[in-house]
Design brief:
mainly alpha; two-stranded antiparallel ribbon; 6 helices; Ubq-SigPath_Reg; CRA_dom
Length: 137
């Protein structure tokens, strides 16, 4: 359902699949996949076509470390795709796409900083352990 309403995300997932085929040295399978699955979508969307061309250019290089688009093979590309999928899932479930915990921790720190000037209170100084510490008098 998410992929039906988000062609950009679907393309990104398919692009990642193509990248993984290339990474694993399955060049023939990658070319076939690109032709059958990605090329028809790329004909409909110029940005998809540009991304497909960038990705398929990986097969032209034996040494991808010298490839101008070698970053597509980096773990950061996988993480980017995973992050996009995660955001889409959260949005589809009517949640915000960003996790709430970092915001809550920032608010806790802000509130404690304000209270430090006005009162002694049990506070959390070590966020990783989340232990309340007694105020020092």
């Amino acid at each position: 359902m998410i992929l039906d309403t988000n062609p950009q995300l679907f393309f990104q997932l398919q692009q990642q699949r193509l990248i993984e085929l290339i990474r694993n040295g399955k060049v023939e399978a990658a070319l076939e996949f690109a032709q059958e699955e990605l090329a028809p979508r790329a004909e409909e969307n110029q940005s998809f076509l540009e991304e497909l061309e960038r990705t398929i250019s990986l097969v032209a290089f034996e040494d991808t470390s010298n490839c101008p688009v070698g970053e597509l093979l980096d773990i950061s590309q996988r993480l980017k795709t995973a992050s996009e999928v995660n955001a889409a899932v959260l949005t589809s479930q009517s949640n915000e796409k960003d996790p709430k915990l970092p915001s809550l921790l920032k608010m806790l720190i802000w509130a404690q900083n304000k209270l430090d000037k006005k009162a002694a209170y049990p506070c959390i100084n070590d966020l990783s352990n989340a232990r309340l510490e007694d105020p020092t008098f």
